[in-house]
Write a structure and sequence with these properties.
The longest helix has 30 residues. By secondary structure, this protein is α+β, with helices and mostly antiparallel strands. The chain is built from seven helices and ten strands. Helix content is 28%, strand content 16%. It folds into two domains: 231 residues, Alpha-Beta Plaits, CATH 3.30.70.20; 32 residues.
Amino acid sequence: MTADGHTTYGLQIQPRVGFFTDTTVCIGCKACEVACKEWNVVPEDGVAWTGNSYDNTGRLDANSWRHVAFVEQRPTHQDFRWLMSSDVCKHCTHAGCLDVCPTGAIFRTEFGTVVIQDDVCNGCGYCVTACPFGVIGKRELGGDGGMHKCTLCYDRLEDGHEPACAKACPTDSIQFGPLDELIDRARRRVESLHEAGVEDARLYGANAADGVGGMGAFFLLLDEPEVYGLPPDPVVPTKNLRQIWGAVAGAAALVAAGVALAFSGGSGAGA
């Protein structure tokens, strides 16, 4: 499986890698959040009490590249469960943020991941509106004016190491590796859960036919995506960009031809 622009690396191309997050074994320890901040020097946040269970970061943004959600459910008076999940940038196959970036600050790496170059970003914010997951943001206090998000630890990948969050996860809820292998593993995991009677288990983001062409970071969920704060049917805003520009170019060509014909006809009549 390749992503947009992935094959342009030629002989330097690497197998596309990503994350498979199995929420059924997440214990909410937040080791991933801490490891991400420490390795990537992401500023401190989440020190204020949100009042939303044990979730003290709230959402993904420029200061939280990993966000552990705590969803409290009480189906009956006797039953209670937490749904825990570590969210992250999806590193979409068709990445809207990359499509709209005017400076080339956002690029596709040889590993198929999507990275923002801090020293090239001008902070315009186009990428913010182009992301259907609300992942990208600007650091309001003490920031550099640019946009920030998960890089899937590109610097670690270049040295042959797994990302810091996956390395720190004590239960292997966050699994890193070649994307094709992860998808096969995830599908077998869902099958085993169904056989064990966990009928609500389903994959989110592993379908190449979805609105973003599949995700480089996908999830095994135990409820609807909305319960975890994920859009049920995400669509990259630039999905039909090529067709739109093709139609615009075709219309412009027809207009130009019409104008040329009008001038040509006028010259002939005057002669």
